[in-house]
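Writing this down once: the sequence line spells out the residues, with the fold written below as integer tokens. I am pasting one below:
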Amino acid sequence: MDSPISNRFRQAPNAIAYNVVKFEGGWRVEARFPKHLSAEDKLTVLNWFQQYRSQVRKLHPLWVTSFFPSDHGYSLEVRPVENPKELLENGQNLKRIWTDEIANRA
């Protein structure tokens, strides 16, 4: 049985809506927040996105991952690439990957 805390996000108007959108060259995971959401709950969603991003990078170090906050939630785009040259051409900042991974392990 779900606790009342986790249950409150499954019903409107408090629902956090998650969606996965496939597009040419990859996919985007989106989380859309209700109008009123606590900073603690936003942080929980943000932490999940960071963990997912780290897992993708660990399994597929050449894939481009781009995180986007918005007024209504967060999005993470994932674009598979085949080689380091394509990675650089698609704009992934290798220094940022290294910095992010070090920060996630700390």
